[in-house]
Amino acid sequence: MKRFIEEVPRAQVSLLPECLDDYVGEDNPVRVVEVFVDGLDLGQLGFKGVDPQATGRPSYHPSVLLKIYIYGYLNRIQSSRRLEREAQRNVELMWLVGRLTPDFKTIANFRKDHGAAIRKVGSQFVALCRKLELFSQAIVAIDGSKFKAVNNRDKNYTNAKVQRRLEQIEASIDRYLAAMDTADRTQPAEAEAKTIRLQEKISKLKAQMAQLKEIEARLREEPDQQLSLTDPDARSMATSGRGTGVVGYNVQTAVDATHHLIVAHEVTNVGNDRAQLASMSEKAQAATGIQDLTVVADRGYFKGEEILQCEQAGITAYVPKPLTSGSKAEGRFGKQDFIYLAQDDQY
User: Fold this and answer.
1) Is the full-model pTM beyond 0.85?
2) 322 and which of 18, 84, 92, 299 could share a cystine (Cβ 3.0–4.6 Å)?
3) What value does the mean pLDDT take over residues 118-147?
4) Can you name the CATH fold of 139-147+234-336?
């Protein structure tokens, strides 16, 4: 077609770069990942398979799988199956791992078996950032994010949920019993078959009631009166949406205000952030090595004891105070509308 930018023919290989390195720019982040991983002592960090076995099938070097993991982290690719596909088609990842293509099971097992070693890699990265003086501004921001767990909402139980389901089952049983009485009085030709079906449903409901009674007994032993069957550590947490929630974890992160680097993180199963300010601030202080650290957080972190603990540790915390009074909503003046006059001892 004339007067349009024309595509390059797929069979025209002579116009392509002669080597894979020409596809990756000098400022591409994968070059940083390459240098960083190659400079680590993987054996000392706890990675297995650094020294090859004398016999058996050759394995992938841990540095190859670690590079794939870091690339997935930087590009928000969490699935091992997606990482397998990216290694087969993504030019950046081909360059990074030398066109090696591990299968998804190998990638998943590497993450599963080297959790502690990968955390140490994160610590090494924070130490490198300190050497490069990337934390010179002494300001970090703290916030929490809700991460969904493997546990389904139907597999998470509280006392209120158990009682509500027991009431629903009892109502269903009563309804089926009434239907059976009606069928017995009418005595149509199909009444016997209908009665058998209703009896089967009642048996299933009674089995569910027995299971809920067992769960209710287990709930009494839980310190927070909450039980998750699939993922035991997961907890039901409210989210920002009205009337919504998620069964998962509250992941706390402290982020450098200048370069937006995560300097510290912590996985909790507490739904609110009120008790997390001091611990996360101290983790950020230890990670950055800055004693006079300044921390900012939203009003969900406001708690007098936490702010006092930060002050005692030499950390300056800026947290807005939440408005807990209902005066404004009811059309009256709030406490923030008054000014205290010390000489007159009045507002």
Assistant:
1) no
2) 299
3) 87
4) Nucleotidyltransferase; domain 5 (3.30.420)
